[in-house]
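This part of the workshop introduces the protein records we will be handling. A record pairs a protein's sequence with a compact description of its fold. As an example, a complete record with its sequence and its structure tokens follows.

_____
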Amino acid sequence: MSKKIQTNNESKFVEKKPFYKRIWFWIIVILILAFIGANSSTSESKQNISNNSSKKVTSSSSSRKVSKPSGKNSSSEQKSKKVAINEKLEARLKEDQDFADQGNTSFSFSKYAYKITANKNNELSIYVTGDFLQLSESQKNEIGKKLQSMANSVLYEENKIDDDEYKEKTITTFYLNKDVSVGVSQVFDHSKFHWNKNK
């Protein structure tokens, strides 16, 4: 409601209420707050759903579907996770070697390695057999990429590396035994390798 004010010369002025005292202003404010509240609770529930859902990935060495849990590990769990990830790498290598033993030639690359481990920085150590040394450089590159991709997929499935790290590949060192390095991934392209000359 507006007030009418009359001055001495009979002029009439109408004094208007400030906008924040008007009913339409408060209705708009309430609607905006209700809209914001509804959107924030909807986005929180969507975020919870996406955090709880699992991500499907296809292993590069086979057509297995594996779920990737989300979330980060506490430091106390990381030591046991390191052992667990190395056990999973060992199990995947054994599984691929079993496929190769059954005559599936697409897994024959796995027969050139006898152990794969990952350190706390997710750098891979692949221990190769003596037969690996007899391969040409291009064959070493091909086998090395397949072994690296297989191990990389395990790290990704276990949420040890993210999407970008999965695409870039992890730093990989190839060993003949614990003391003899035979090759390492290149600095700027981890999917390419530098091979030590055979002596």
User: Anything to note?
Assistant: Residues 23-52 form the longest helix (30 residues). The longest strand covers residues 113-118. Residues 52-71 have pLDDT under 50 and may be disordered. Helices lie at 23-52, 75-101, 130-133, 137-157, 163-168.
